[in-house]
């Protein structure tokens, strides 16, 4: 074994931890970069849509007022517009409404029939209401049996 191998063999755990930390931090930096690029692209598209919507409002107001439409050129209003035209995720566009289909078959009528009677139930185990309180008993005058004599201490 060389001196380098001996030095690395004693510290392999710390070197492995350092490698893992470098890999994780690299992944975090790459993820943050992708997120930042996506956020910038979404922001640019939002600005472009807002600008174009404002231009459409101006054009509509001019048409409603009976004026000749003088909408601004969107290629000058939105910087690098053709690069933002293509949407990477396909957005479904609804088509025209189709012809009305034939009516379906009516649902079957279900008439419930009573089932067979079950066996009679058992008597209830719940007690009934309490009766009226009875008369108090006579006081006893007969003494009880004699107890054992106590010991002195």
Could you provide a short overview of the structure?
Keywords: Membrane, Transmembrane, Transmembrane helix. This protein is mainly alpha-helical and 153 residues long.
Helices, strands, pairings?
Elements: H1 3-10, H2 12-64, H3 74-77, H4 81-85
Write up this protein.
By secondary structure, the protein is mainly alpha-helical. The protein has a domain at 3-85. It has helices at residues 3-10, 12-64, 74-77, 81-85. It is flat. The model has no long low-confidence stretch (mean pLDDT 78).
| Helical content class | 40-55%
User: Quaternary status of these chains?
Assistant: single chain
List low-confidence stretches: none
* Beta strands, count: 0
Any descriptors?
153 residues; mainly alpha; transmembrane helix; Collagen triple helix repeat protein
